[in-house]
């Protein structure tokens, strides 16, 4: 979904800083941390996603000839700097949490060490990619959690913030456990199950609802899901039953019906009663229409007999929290720990590691933020992913990330998994990291 040339997908100030570094010999080894300052409101956890796109981008980072010509045309940069960019490749290392890992505020999910210019130029892409993918993965995970074992599928493409965002939503929701997507391009590229029924326009175009049902069933006798609320839901359900009986007489079975409007709790009860009374106990009741984790939880709490949720706009746009406060900050330069002391935006100095402990039942008992070289008898979340600009392992697909996330969610404390008013964990900080932080603070304030 992304264009081949991506190096200019950066903020202009990255280039102006890089040019000044180049001209003044400041392009030394640097380490940056990518983390979120705060867990978003109404979130008990965050989900690491987008790493695979980041690694692919870094491994293939280069400026195209067209991009180099454009930079020369601006008249802002020296010939030497632009020539340097023309031959530049990413040669650094990356430590990161595997996709699907659950994390909390102030915990770096990616740390990158490279020349200062390289690190600065890739910042924007990394933050953009991790922000969107992780935000949607957390939203989708909460929707799947609210569904309590029932299937969720991705219907978000038409209202995501662009086609790239729709593609990312399909992948992130698959990591979260969704069983398919309406996005055909994503289904093809990622090996997801393509899902979809019919729109109200199909009923309207045919004119007669019963005839529309029959025509669709004739086209897809083994994949029939009928949208029953175009005109009158009770009448639509009765007509769906008639079509199902015709299919049964021909040796086929209707998969189910879909509801997209009105009182979904009441209409799903009517649908279940109508189908069961007709001997169609195995037919599914599917609902869609402005669903999110809150509405799904409320529907099931009200006893709505729903088998599948088509989740669209509110998941694909993460409507209640459309971004996460990710940032990418310099934490070491030339081997010297560095920090930022701005109010509300303080950073922890040095290359770091997160150690996660579990109780006897396998539930997370706490995270500790440490310096990279510290050792603990606990699970290290950050793993070496790239060295010398090359991946250390083959790409990992969404299915592996889904397995990681399922295990992570099963290990979360109950207060983190609440749909409403969850309570995220906060990491403790090792004494050694605190000492390095204090030393770096004193050094910064003394200048």
Automatic annotation (TrEMBL):
InterPro entries in UniProt: Aldolase_TIM, N/Namide_PRibTrfase, NAPRTase_N, Nic_PRibTrfase-Fam, Nic_PRibTrfase_pncB, Nicotinate_pribotase-like_C
Keywords (A to Z) from UniProt: Glycosyltransferase, Ligase, Phosphoprotein, Pyridine nucleotide biosynthesis, Transferase
Superkingdom classification of source: Bacteria
Pathway named in the protein's UniProt entry: Cofactor biosynthesis; NAD(+) biosynthesis; nicotinate D-ribonucleotide from nicotinate: step 1/1
Alphabetized CDD domains for the sequence: NAPRTase_A
Record EC number: 6.3.4.21
Transferase as UniProt keyword: yes
Family of this protein: Belongs to the NAPRTase family.
PANTHER family assigned: NICOTINATE PHOSPHORIBOSYLTRANSFERASE
Name the record gives this protein: Nicotinate phosphoribosyltransferase
Species annotation: Desulfarculus baarsii (strain ATCC 33931 / DSM 2075 / LMG 7858 / VKM B-1802 / 2st14)
């Amino acid at each position: 979904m992304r264009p081949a040339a991506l190096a200019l997908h950066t903020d202009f100030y990255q280039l102006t800083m890089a040019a000044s570094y180049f001209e003044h010999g400041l392009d030394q080894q640097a380490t940056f941390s990518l983390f979120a300052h705060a867990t978003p409101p109404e979130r008990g956890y965050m989900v690491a996603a987008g790493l695979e796109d980041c690694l692919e981008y870094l491994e293939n980072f280069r400026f195209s000839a067209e991009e180099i010509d454009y930079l020369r045309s601006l008249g802002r940069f020296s010939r030497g700097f632009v020539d340097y960019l023309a031959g530049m490749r990413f040669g650094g290392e990356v430590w990161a949490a595997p996709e699907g890992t659950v994390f909390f505020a102030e915990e770096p999910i990616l740390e990158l060490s490279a020349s200062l210019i390289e690190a600065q130029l890739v910042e924007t892409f990394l933050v953009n990619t991790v922000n969107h993918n992780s935000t949607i993965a957390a939203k989708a995970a909460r929707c799947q959690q609210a569904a309590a074992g029932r299937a969720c599928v991705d219907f978000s493409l038409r209202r995501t913030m662009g086609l790239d965002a729709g593609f990312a939503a399909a992948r992130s929701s698959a990591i979260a456990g969704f069983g398919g997507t309406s996005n055909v391009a994503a289904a093809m590229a990622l090996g997801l199950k393509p899902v979809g029924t019919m729109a109200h326009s199909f009923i309207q175009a045919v004119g007669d609802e019963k005839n529309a049902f029959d025509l669709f069933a004739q086209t897809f006798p083994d994949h029939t899901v009928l949208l029953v609320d175009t005109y009158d839901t009770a009448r639509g359900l009765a007509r769906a039953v008639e079509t199902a009986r015709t299919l049964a007489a021909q040796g086929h079975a209707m998969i189910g019906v879909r509801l997209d409007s009105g009182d979904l709790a009441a209409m799903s009860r009517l649908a279940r009663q109508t189908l069961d009374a007709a001997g169609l106990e195995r037919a599914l009741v599917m609902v869609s229409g402005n669903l999110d984790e809150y509405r799904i939880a409320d529907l099931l709490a009200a006893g709505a007999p729903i088998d599948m949720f088509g989740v669209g706009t509110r998941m694909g746009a993460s409507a209640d929290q459309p971004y996460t406060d990710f940032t990418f900050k310099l934490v070491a330069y030339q081997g010297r720990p560095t920090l930022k002391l701005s109010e509300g935006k303080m950073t922890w100095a040095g290359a770091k590691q997160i150690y996660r402990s579990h109780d006897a039942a396998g539930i997370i008992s706490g995270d500790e933020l440490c310096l990279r070289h510290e050792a603990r008898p606990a699970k290290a979340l950050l793993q070496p992913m790239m060295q010398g600009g090359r991946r250390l392992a083959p790409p990992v697909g969404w299915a592996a990330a889904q397995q990681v996330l399922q295990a992570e969610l099963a290990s979360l404390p109950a207060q983190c998994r609440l749909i409403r008013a969850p309570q995220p964990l906060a990491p403790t900080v090792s004494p050694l990291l605190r000492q390095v932080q204090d030393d770096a603070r004193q050094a910064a304030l003394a200048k």
